[in-house]
Design a protein that fits this description.
The chain is an alpha+beta fold. The chain has helices at 23-29, 34-37, 67-78, 95-107, 115-118, 122-137, 199-212, 264-278, 316-329, and strands at 13-16, 60-63, 141-144, 155-163, 169-178, 215-220, 235-236, 251-254, 282-283, 290-294, 299-305, 308-314. The chain contains nine helices and twelve strands. This is Ribonuclease H-like domain, reverse transcriptase, RNA-dependent DNA polymerase.
């Protein structure tokens, strides 16, 4: 092993520029070569020796200065067009400018909170008539005298507007809702639980569909809760604004469920379950909201979430056939 004769440090030219160097310049100017990365095969020395054929005193560790980098960057900024303004946007805007985009919002009408507010608008009056027509066509109730020992549940109107992406009103919707919060368990209702599909189950159903390249169809049952049959006698008052003089003092006995009642979800689920079973579907033992129908040449799967049904399977003609049968049986 050769010995170092000079007692001076091995690196005679050690220059440091600006310490705030960037990785980009460091990588470009100090990237080691393949030879520099290879350690010499010398078991007698604990340190790597300098590269061969290069005098020791000429070795230089050079960390590049970033002064030129920042200088060039500043030059580029200074060379920008004179019309470029670095200052933040400040100042004032006129009220007309503000109102240009918020005029519709400021002038938008709130949804009515009760019948009195809605009765001044013909759009809401027509919507309430449509709701009552739907209830009557469904044979939801029958007019009668309140029996002794019973208490009629009050009704209220709930109003909602549907808007498009631009915020324009496309539909007025009125719904007659029972004040179910005054109902008592064991007197007005018994069971209220209704199973729905878990999100994990829906994901699994869609994964099976994608794997088999099946079609997915969605059914939203219109006025679903009005289809449920009631087991207990329930009486409700006549809806505000639609009480005939000759019928004052009378009430409605509900034959089918009405929105707002505590037992409505349960009643609808029982109706749905019976309908699907009548169409030869079987309920899954592990997931109460999944129904299957498997024949020799077809497979149908249905996932239920309250009044939304996801239908998939093969072939497509079986899905179309089911939709027609469902439409007839759900009336």
């Amino acid at each position: 092993m050769s010995e170092l004769i000079n007692d001076e440090p091995g690196w005679t030219d050690f220059r440091i520029g600006d310490l705030e160097t960037t990785n980009e310049h460091h990588d470009q100017e100090t990237q080691p070569t393949k030879e520099d990365n290879e350690f010499p095969n010398n078991d007698d020395d604990d340190y790597a020796s300098p590269t061969k054929n290069t005098p020791l005193h000429s070795q230089t560790l050079y960390i590049p200065s970033t002064q030129s980098y920042y200088q060039s960057d500043n030059d580029s900024i200074q060379n920008l067009p004179s019309h470029f303004d670095h200052t933040p946007l400040r100042g004032f805007r006129t009220l007309n400018d503000l109102y240009e985009n918020t005029k519709e919002l400021l002038l938008a009408k709130d949804e009515p909170k009760n019948y009195k507010e809605a009765s001044s608008d013909q759009n809401w009056i027509e919507t309430m008539k449509v709701e009552l027509d739907s209830i009557n066509r469904n044979n939801t109730w029958e007019l009668t005298t309140l029996p002794k020992g019973h208490k009629a549940i009050g009704l209220k109107w709930v109003f909602k507007t549907k808007k498009d992406a631009n915020g324009d009103i496309i539909k007025h919707k009125a719904r007659l809702v029972a004040k179910g919060y005054i109902q008592q368990h064991g007197i007005n209702f018994e069971e209220v639980f209704a199973p729905v599909a878990r999100i994990e189950t829906i994901r699994l159903l869609l994964a099976i569909t994608a794997n088999n390249k099946w079609e997915v169809h969605h059914l939203d049952v219109k006025s679903a809760f009005l289809h449920g049959d009631l087991k207990k006698e329930v009486y409700v008052t006549q809806p505000e604004g639609f009480i005939k003089k000759q019928d004052q003092g009378k009430v409605y006995r509900l034959v089918k469920a009405l929105y707002g009642l505590r037992q409505v979800p349960r009643a609808w689920n029982i109706k749905l379950d019976n309908t699907l079973k009548s169409l030869d579907f079987k309920k899954c033992a592990l997931e109460q909201a999944i129904y299957t129908k498997t024949l020799k040449d077809s497979t149908l799967l249905i996932g239920v979430y309250v009044d939304d049904l996801i239908i998939t399977g093969t072939p497509k003609k079986e899905i179309d056939k089911f939709k027609l049968k469902w439409k007839k049986n759900s009336k």
